[in-house]
Amino acid sequence: MGEQQPEKRRKGEHRALFLTRIDVIRTELQQGWPVKSVYERHKSELQMSYPQFWRYVSSLILKETPKVSDTAPPNEAVAPPVGTPEQPPAKPTDPHGGPVIRQFEYNPRAKNPEDLI
User: Fold this and answer.
1) Rounded distance between C-alpha atoms, residue 58 and residue 45, angstroms
2) Per the record, where are the segments of Pro residues compositional bias (predicted)?
């Protein structure tokens, strides 16, 4: 009865700890530090395992899409991409107007891997 149970962890508690340090972690990763080194540096404050740290880094830092304000200088309009967008290749059609149905032809000595499929 005199035993004390360890404090129960609440869901999202470690994520909040990570988010409080996200700017420092992002800066260190942009400077070229390995993820493992950054984890070792912040391990005592974050109180999480390396796999969990890696999941947070990959989902919150590495998969970020750059914002327009991050890529373009202020007070300058973002130029549209140069050139025309690529058009999807036209599907081959039968001379009678219908779609072409590919037929399988077996060739046991085919040198092209596409012929084997």
Assistant:
1) 19
2) 82-92
Q: Is the dihedral of CA 37, 15, 46, 21 positive or negative?
A: positive
CA distances from 15 to 8, 31, 83, 109, 111 (A): 15, 23, 43, 57, 53
Full residue range of the structural domain in which residue 59 is found: 13-68
Residue 103 lies in a domain: no
Tokens at 114, concatenated: 């596409």
Look up residue 85 and give its two tokens: 């967008």
Listed in sequence order, the residues at least 6 apart from 92 whose beta carbon sits closer than 8 Å to its beta carbon are 99, 100
Asked whether residue 50 is assigned to any structural domain, the reply reads yes
pTM score? 0.48
The SS3 call for residue 99 is: strand
Nearest to 35 by CA among 16, 11, 18: 18
**100: in domain:** no
Structure-token match 């059609």, residue found:
93
CB 86 within 8 A of CB 80: no
